[in-house]
Fold this protein.
Amino acid sequence: MTEAIRLRLDVSYDGAEFSGWAVQPNRRTVAGVLVEALRRLLGAEHAETPLGLTVAGRTDAGVHATGQVCHIELPVAKWTELEGSLLRRLAALMPPDARVRAVTPVPETFDARFSATFRRYEYRVSDVPSGPEPLRRHDTLGWLRPLDLDRLNAAARGLLGEHDFAAFCKRKEHATTIRAINRLEWRRDPDGVCVATVQADAFCQAMVRSLVGAMLTVGDGRREPEWPARLLTLRERSSEVTVAPAHGLTLIAVGYPDQTEYASRAEATRRLRA
């Protein structure tokens, strides 16, 4: 058996032209272009070598990332050969809307998905009458109604903590919808754009965009600030919640403990998700 080394990859991408992260037949995905580039680097002699690609969090079609994390396993001999040039070689092989920003050897106990302690997203919304700046059209939602920052943050406070977010999730069979949000706040940047920061141990599918969609109806005055929190009593997805469009959402950071805690964190997460 070929000796392998585990590598952490920090990845950024513009999700506009991708059908999400995960490999799908006949669709352009981030994992797809990454695996293709790695296979070309490894060459024919390693064509059947499993890469073990594991990502911190699969993003949906149209969602961006500046702080995505994944891990792979490469044959040690190949890593020794490529270590000094891997980033440059990947930059030459990958498309301009996806980049590997860093490659770091990690212990085999590191798991990009299960060792993570948090995922942090930002959602950008422009409520100026003229709409978002053209250069930010891929990562900023245009909102036709004026938004009140105090109302947005009032709605956000009611969603903090550990709850069953079934009303805001696309349910998967045998998967829990209980999540712990430890940061949820809105700010208005100097350019006038409203930015929501959402951080939790993990998220269900479409959860962040559903939360944003609910809070925006509070921010523009159509709902009261207590309304999103009241939905937490539901045990199935609410038809009243509109999912915000994907292009305003960016995964900006994934957190991990000290490397001595990689294994214990992964074990605890697996138990929790089961």
Summary: The helical segments are 30-42, 76-82, 86-93, 149-157, 207-219, 227-230, 262-273. Residues 44 and 53 are 19 Å apart (CA to CA). The longest helix spans residues 30-42. The two ends are 31 Å apart (CA to CA).
